[in-house]
Amino acid sequence: MKEEDQRTKDIISKVREIEIRARRLVEESLAGQYHSVFKGRGMDFDRAREYIRGDEVRTIDWNVTARTGSPHIKLFTEEREMTMLIIIDVSASLDFGSNPQTKRELAAEVASVMAFSALRNNDKVGLMLCTDEVEYYLPPASGRRHVLRLIRDILYFEPKGRGTNLVTAIDFANRVQPRKCLMLLMSDYTFPGSQAEALETLKPKISTTSKRHDLVALAINDQREEELPNIGMIRIEDSESGDVITLNTGSKKIRENFKAEAASLRTEMKRLFAQHGIDFLELKTGEPYQPILKQFFSTREQRAIRS
User: Fold this and answer.
1) I need a labelling partner for 3 at 20 to 30 A (CA). Which of 58, 151, 289, 297 fits?
2) Which residues are CB-contacts of 194 (< 8 A; sequence separation ≥ 6)?
3) Which DSSP state fits 142?
4) Which backbone phi and psi does 127 adopt, to 5 degrees?
5) Could you give phi then psi for residue 54, rounded to 5 degrees?
6) 247 with 178: CB under 8 angstroms?
7) Cβ atoms within 10 Å, residue 122
């Protein structure tokens, strides 16, 4: 019982620690930008009034016009409430980290920042955790307790699967969110088997989803997945497939090939999301994510002004 009590205390402490950092960042930097960047699902009908010369003809309310005998137009107000759905890949590779922070811990912290930003704007936030299947779904809701539960679930949920299948995850997300929402897709985009084939399979899904939702892709990576240290012979295990290979990191050619292959995959991912107008953020464990989020908000804000 004492071990369970200590684990509960550790969980509460970790969640609270992330909450403090996330709320500070939101309150000091991101709250205003979030409000201006994410506008909600559209416009709500407010009321009808009589047509005045110069009004947009396309806004004429023909039902009211027919009933009253004089032209009326529709007036709208912006629909502020928005739903955010955070989709996180919790496959085995997300538990990796070459420094004290794992990729899953980084995902939890970034998700908490976005969730508290939504909370300040009275938006609802939902969570979906997936591996090669959808393992957990927390329907969208609002409130601090809901966000704290969301953080806890990201950190401590124990998935049954080890692999990654984002196609299944996106299909599920589209079913449970038929109306437009802000959809955050967080993964290391590491797939069993051929990476190229996996990205090709993913392409039609993100194409369809980006037309219905505001889809944002966040890549959660670790420096050691992109660049090998020069430490001689090492054994590398694929955490999702269990395959093990031995590499001589003392070989400059092997290190260069490893780095080039990782860079090529990142380039393909960027191209894939860019083709469909999807924002793509790259985050790494052990590195500050705050500047990347600030730049993302700033870029979206400028884009909204230009449009």
Assistant:
1) 151
2) none
3) -
4) -135, 140
5) 105, -15
6) no
7) 10
Residue 268 CA to residue 260 CA, distance in Å, equals: 12
Q: Between 195-212 and 166-176, two packed helices, what is the crossing angle to 10 degrees?
A: 10
- SS3 call for 143: coil
pTM strictly above 0.90: no
74 forms beta bridges with 48
Using CA atoms, how far apart are residues 243 and 261, in angstroms rounded to an integer?
A: 18
Name the pairing type of β-strands 124-130 and 42-50.
unpaired
What stretch of H or E contains 98? none
Mean pLDDT of 198-215: 92
CA 111 to CA 96: how far, in whole Å?
18
Contact 70, 62 (CB under 8 A): no
46 band by pLDDT with thresholds 50, 70 and 90: low
Q: What angle do CA 235, 238, 239 make, to 5 degrees?
A: 115
Say if residues 279 and 217 touch (Cβ distance below 8 Å). Answer: yes
In total, the chain counts a number of residues equal to 307
The Cα angle at residue 28 between residues 88 and 25, in degrees rounded to 5: 25
Helix ranges (H only) for the chain are: 2-25, 31-37, 62-68, 103-120, 144-156, 166-176, 195-212, 252-275, 290-306
Q: What is the DSSP letter of 94?
A: G
Instruction: Please write the tens of the pLDDT for every residue from 212-262.
Output: 999 999 999 998 888 888 888 887 777 677 777 888 888 889 888 888 988
Pairing of strands 233-237, 244-248: antiparallel
Q: Determine contact, residues 123/115, Cβ cutoff 8 Å.
A: no
Domains of the chain: 2-26+80-306 (3.40.50.410), 45-78 (no CATH)
Give the three-class secondary structure for 191.
coil
